[in-house]
Amino acid sequence: MSEPFARTDAPLCVVVLTYVAPLDAIDAQMKEHVAWLAKGYAEGVFLASGRQIPRTGGVILIRGEKAAVEAVVATDPFVSGGLATPEITAFTASMVLPGIAELLA
């Protein structure tokens, strides 16, 4: 029987975006933000994303070292437009489900 987890040293960051503008301003830039997200997924850098509950911002799981992730997040239209502030927490995924480990290789 295999282990229920895999070991990895993959660098990851959790990005928490907090809206600092009204939701109508956020919604007005949503198309650009979603295009930015799509680019990150197409490049294989973004692993998961979604809205906070309640809708006060969003969360993105991004692979990479903190400095590289900071540079990418700075290009988010919400961030560059002053609509949201990011908090970036770097961590090393030392244990993950086997299927996720394959994504981080």
CATH superfamily: Dimeric alpha+beta barrel
| CATH fold-type name | Alpha-Beta Plaits
Let me know the number of strands. Answer: 4
**Morphology call:** elongated
Q: Please report the distance between the alpha carbons of the first and last residues.
A: 22 Å
Second CATH tier, the architecture: 2-Layer Sandwich
Overall pLDDT: 92
State the helical fraction: 25-40%
Summarize this structure as a short list of keywords or feature phrases.
4 strands, 38% strand, 105 residues, Alpha-Beta Plaits, 36% helix, alpha+beta
Describe this structure in words.
By secondary structure, the chain is α+β, with helices and mostly antiparallel strands. It has a single domain (6-104), classed as Alpha-Beta Plaits. It is built from 5 helices and 4 strands, in the order E-H-H-E-E-H-H-E-H. The longest helix is centred in the middle third of the chain and has 13 residues, at 30-42. The chain is elongated and about 45 Å long. The chain starts with 5 loop residues before the first strand and ends with a helix. The mean pLDDT is 92.
